[in-house]
Amino acid sequence: MQQTIDARRHNVTSDAHNPDVVLVGGGIMSATLAALLGIVAPDWTVQVFESGAEVAGESSGPWNNAGTGHSALCELNYTPARPDGTVDPAKAVAINEQFQVSRQFWSHLVRSGLTDSPKSFITSVPHISFVTGPDGHRYMRNRYDALAPLPLFAGLEHTDSPGELTDWVPLMMDRRDPTEAVAATRSLAGTDVNFGALTGLLVDAAVTRGVELHLRHRVTRVRRETDGRWATTVTDLASGAKRTVRSRFLFVGAGGGALPLLQGAGIPEIRGFGGFPVSGQFLRSRNAALVARHQAKVYGQAKVGAPPMSVPHLDLRLIDGEQSLLFGPYAGFSPKFLKSGSMWDLPRSVRSGNLGSMVGAGIANIPLTKYLIGQVLQSTSSRFRALEEFVPTAESGDWELITAGQRVQVIKQDPNTKRGVLQFGTELIVGADGTIAGLLGASPGASTATAAMLTLLERAFPDRIDGWRPLLQEAIPSYGHQLSENPDLLAEVRADTTKTLELQG
Q1: How many domains does the chain contain in total?
Q2: CA max distance for the chain
Q3: Does 505 fall in a domain?
Q4: Kind of enzyme, top EC level (predicted)?
Q5: What value, to the nearest 5°, has the Cα angle with vertex 437 and ends 431 and 441?
Q6: CA 182 – CA 273 distance, rounded (Å)
Q7: What is the CATH number of the domain that holds 16?
Q8: Which of 27, 41, 62, 222 is least surrounded by CB atoms within 10 angstroms?
Q9: Comparing 30-39, 301-310, 331-340, which segment has the lowest mean pLDDT?
Q10: Residue 139 has pLDDT above 60, yes or no
Q11: CB-side neighbour CA atoms (13 Å) of 255
Q12: Domain for residue 340, yes or no?
């Protein structure tokens, strides 16, 4: 990702200590919120504080995630099987709806001059689900039957023919046992997204219109002042100097770093929440011959006891003009909440308000703990055998191990049982008076950033949202509507975004 950092990003306005909005973190969430505020409240002053030397250095970075445009076209953990074997499509529909919102917003920004080439951040890549064995074969047929009739999943294909799969995924079928039962679905509407490049474009656009970006500035404390403003204390990592800015609204979009800051803010809404960090690694291949034989993103089924973020997948990636393959993830454990975090992040996050949740979630997720221990102790040969299940002809010399971003899974208190539960997904925390908000959690976060930030605007600014609605609907035509219930609108926005983003029709 080419990142241009110039002096404009560090200019100080005449009221630099009292901006309207402070955004903590320079990732896709803060960048998306800044873009939305530029539409609905262009006169508001906004400051962004990022501890890294560039934006998108943590989870939004292109090699810190798989780049899947999460729309539930291939991710099997979004389509769970019911006890009778049928498949529940509800979560898949919800996530696909949210990704369509992102596509519409990105299309609007491209038309507004965000970039001359949307291919710098989004490209068409087929999304394929792949399973083996009799149980997988039955599940895949039931999944197809549940999704194919739905408008959001129009064009979904199913096959259990080894010959047809050789056309779809030749690298995966080469030398595969011919007696093995296989089945798959494919959607040509899938995408690969470089969220790092997208974040950079959004931040550059925000800076151009006056948003202040402060790189290498770490937020160390947030506190509520008597006049209702939020005082955010930041340290300039280059000079060591500290200062405090006071804002009417504060958003903490700092990935894994959001939890301790929200805890420090003392808002009651964060009570009971905890975080469980999970690290990840991928095997990457830049072998052009292999890449040419795998032009798709292929998701399989998670091992028993594995978290959803550990669903194995073999992905085509396009980053900075270069195609490569990514396989994984291999889960691991580190007490850090960020790749650049501290080994004390996890223990420091345990408070009296979330101790019960943390202990309860730990007891309830012993299989997950065992799984993570096994992953940490996994040998190189064991790790490679997992790849061979996808690519029978894989050779170790073609692959290198890389470390992905750190994810902090949400632990929250069940309102009914009062026990802690581990939640895979994202959680938006908004203070009661709407002056502070933060986002916790992981996948499918980046793909659904626009929907998440729209929800934030609705919850944090209920007195303004009606006045903003026409502006938001101009940028996102489906805003306020369900595409799954409006096939005509779905066809319209799908055609528009496909053309504007230069995707495959």
Answers
A1: 1
A2: 73
A3: no
A4: oxidoreductase
A5: 115
A6: 41
A7: 3.50.50.60
A8: 41
A9: 301-310
A10: yes
A11: 31
A12: yes
